[in-house]
Amino acid sequence: MKPKFETRAIHAGCEPDPGTGAIMTPIFQTSTYVQESPGKHKGYDYSRTRNPTRAALEQNIASLEEGRYGLAFSSGMSAAAAITQLLDSGDHIVCCDDVYGGTFRLFENVLKRYHLECDFVDMTQVQSLEAHIKNNTRLVWLESPTNPLLKCIDIEAVAHITRKHHILMAVDNTFATPFFQKPLNLGADIVMHSTTKYLNGHSDVIGGVIVTSDQDVNERLLFLQNAVGAVPGPFDCFLVLRGIKTLAVRMERHGENAIKVARFLENHPKVKRTIYPGLESHPEHAVAKKQMSGFGGVITFFIKGGLEAARDFLERVKVFSLAESLGGVESLIEHPAIMTHASVPKKIREKTGITDDLIRLSVGIENVEDLIEDLGNALEG
Ligand SMILES: *Cc1c(COP(=O)(O)O)cnc(C)c1O
After folding, report:
1. Model-level pTM greater than 0.85?
2. According to the model, what pLDDT value does residue 68 have?
3. How many angstroms does the Cα of residue 89 sit away from the middle of ligand 1?
4. Each residue of 237-252: b (16+ CB within 10 Å) or e?
5. Is the CB of 100 under 6 A from ligand 1?
6. What per-residue confidence (pLDDT) applies to 210?
7. How far is Cα 166 from Cα 36, in angstroms, rounded to an integer?
C-alpha cells in the first residue's frame, strides 16, 4: 500500500538516522567526505554533487509530486534557470503571458543574450497555443494559477499539444503546491517550485526544486545541477523538509481562509473585482475545479480609486504585512505593479492586466475573522 499524501509529506525520504536513531534528518553540514581508497566512498564525495540532507529533500518532494526524480536548488529562479539550460542557443520557448516577474526577467533579459527567443502567450486560450509553436520550439512554460492574475490554464490540454509536437512542458507549481495540483499526473514533463513559498511555508528560506519522471531529462538536470552549481545548503534543505511535514494541514487552512476572504472582498463596495480560482465568478473556475483539489491561498483584487486608494489601503492594514513573497503562515499583502512585478515593463503589465489598482494577498493561517476585520477596517479608511 502506497502511503497517502499527508503521510508521505512527513516520512518520504526521511528514514531515522542509521547511526543514532535520530528521527529528524541530520543537517550534514559538510563540504567533503573521507574516502577509504581513491574513488571508494559511501556514495558521497563532494557536497555540490551530493549531500544526504539535500537527498532527503529531493526524495521527499519527488514523492509528493508523484515523480521519479527530485532535484533541489538554491532558489526558485536557479531551478528555473537550470530548466532553461536544457536548451541550446537558437531554441524557442513559449511561456504563459502572466508569469512570475523574475521568470519574465530571466527569459526576456538574460536568455535573449544567448539567442533563446521567448513568446508570451495567453494560454487560457489553449486552442491558440499551437499557432505559436515553431520548428525550433523546445519548451512550453506555464504557471497555473498564474502570478498575479490567477489565470488557470488547462494543463492536460496543453500537455496534449506539447506531446504531439515533442516539446518539453514545464509547470511552475509554486502557487498550487502538490497538495492541490499534480502537473506530472496531468501530462507535464517537469514541475518546478520556489520552495521559498508554500513548501517551506515559514518565510525563512530561499530555495527551489525540480521534479520529473523522465530519466533522460533527470540525467541532464543532474549534470547541470552539479556543473552550474546553484545548490542549496544543508541547513536550508533541513528547514524545507521540516516545513513540508505540515504542508497538508497548512494548505487546508490557507484554502479555507482564502475562500472566506475572497467572498468578503467580492461583496465589498470598495472592491471593483476579486479574482480567486475558487469563486464561481472566476473565468476559469471550471478548469481549476477539474485539475485542482483546492484553490490555494492567493487572492488578487482591484480596488476602486486607483493607485491613491491602493496606497492608502496598503498603509492601513495591520494584521496583513506589506511585503513581497507569499505562501508563509503569516498573511502578506502587496502591490504587484510597484513591488513583485516592477521588472515587467509598464506597457506589458498593462497589456496583461497588472494595473495600478491591483492588490495581491497571500492569505495566511491566522484566525480568518481577524483577517477579514483587518481588511474591512483598511478598506473603510
Ligand atoms: C517566488 C517565485 C519564484 C522564484 O522563486 P525564488 O525562490 O524567489 O527564486 C518563481 N515562481 C513563482 C510562481 C514564485 O512565486
Report:
1. yes
2. 98
3. 24
4. bbbbbbbbbbbbebbe
5. yes
6. 99
7. 45
Cβ of 102 closer than 6 Å to ligand 1, yes or no, is: yes
Confirm whether 68 is a catalytic residue. no
Question: 5-244 — its CATH code?
Answer: 3.40.640.10
Nearest CA to ligand 1 atom 1: 194
Picking from 4, 371, 57, the residue whose alpha carbon sits closest to that of residue 238 is: 57
Q: Give residue limits of the domains in the chain.
A: 5-244, 247-380
* Catalytic annotation present for 197: yes
Please determine, for residue 381, whether its predicted confidence score (pLDDT) is greater than 90. Answer: no
Is there a catalytic annotation at residue 44?
no
User: pLDDT at position 45, please?
Assistant: 96
Q: What is the mean pLDDT of residues 206-222?
A: 98
Q: Give the containing element (helix H, strand E) for 271.
A: strand 271-275
* Cell (9 digits) for 63: 514523492
**Would the CA dihedral through 199, 363, 186, 4 be positive or negative?**
positive
| 247-380 placed in CATH 3.40.640.10 | no
Cα-to-centroid distance, 268 and ligand 1 (Å): 30
Residue 340, pLDDT > 90, answer no
